[in-house]
Amino acid sequence: MTRIVPPLRLGVNIDHVATVRNARGGSLPDPVRAAQLACASGADGITAHLREDRRHIRDADMRRLREVLLVPLNFEMAATDDMVALATELRPHACCLVPERREERTTEGGLDVIGGGIELAHKLEKLAKAGIRVSLFIAPDADQIARAADIGAAVIELHTGAWCDLLAERRNDEAALEFERLAHAAREGARLGLEIHAGHGLDYSTAETIAALPEVRELNIGHFLIGEAIFDGLEGAVRHMRVAMARGRAAGRPVAA
């Protein structure tokens, strides 16, 4: 017996609208307006990464997003005391804990849940007690996934960046192996009772491919959509992404009941 594959949600990351704003200064383009337009175009939620150096999203952006959004806000953040304190004050729908280094251009690699030890578990507990769903952004590694379940994470977001990079470099055999790692990780995480998300480096084609994995419940996509918005508008980019995701979902395998 099989059951219907659940719907696949799209979270749109609006960080790089703020990047463009900050390059010149002032208030435009407004990332909150971009978030509202993305939602009107089919996004199910909004992701924003408040980095410790405030290179794109700023504290005021997070407060405004929390005030005006009618969809879930996913607060992406480093697992630091300052960020945990801010998150428990704002109380977004979800927090995604990510590794963060100031010199990196974007998030590199997954969070080391095993190495985070009891300190990471305590931060997760504080967020959960504030009514916030906690997601851990991790590589498709069985040991990391098991540890995420052990410390009480509700969600894991699988880092798809390595797979996307291999495809872009046309290292197709290696890319196929990496995709199998992602597929296995999704199955294993679901078996452990975790909700499975995925993100990083996804475009229309790769989003369509990973949408076929029935365990994956949400994709979080930012840089590509903001880049495509230059050519097609944000509304067109989000709508095109929804079509690609739906096509991939329809082609996916059912889940055994």
From TrEMBL:
Site features described as Transition state stabilizer, chain residue numbers: E157
Molecular function terms, GO-annotated: pyridoxine 5'-phosphate synthase activity
Pathway: Cofactor biosynthesis; pyridoxine 5'-phosphate biosynthesis; pyridoxine 5'-phosphate from D-erythrose 4-phosphate: step 5/5
UniProt: 3-amino-2-oxopropyl phosphate binding residues: N13, R24, G201, G222, H223
Enzyme Commission designation: 2.6.99.2
Pfam families the record matches: PdxJ
Catalysis performed (reactions): 3-amino-2-oxopropyl phosphate + 1-deoxy-D-xylulose 5-phosphate = pyridoxine 5'-phosphate + phosphate + 2 H2O + H(+)
Signal sequence coordinates: none
Keywords: Cytoplasm, Pyridoxine biosynthesis, Transferase
Active site, renumbered: H49 (proton acceptor), E76 (proton acceptor), H200 (proton donor)
Location within or outside the cell: Cytoplasm
Binding residues for 1-deoxy-D-xylulose 5-phosphate: D15, H16, R51, H56, T106
Domain of life: Bacteria
NCBIfam families: pdxJ, PRK05265.1-2, PRK05265.1-3, PRK05265.1-5
Function, as annotated: Catalyzes the complicated ring closure reaction between the two acyclic compounds 1-deoxy-D-xylulose-5-phosphate (DXP) and 3-amino-2-oxopropyl phosphate (1-amino-acetone-3-phosphate or AAP) to form pyridoxine 5'-phosphate (PNP) and inorganic phosphate.
Subunit annotation: Homooctamer; tetramer of dimers.
PANTHER family named among the record's database cross-references: PYRIDOXINE 5'-PHOSPHATE SYNTHASE
Family in the record: Belongs to the PNP synthase family.
Protein name, per record: Pyridoxine 5'-phosphate synthase
Gene expressing this chain: pdxJ
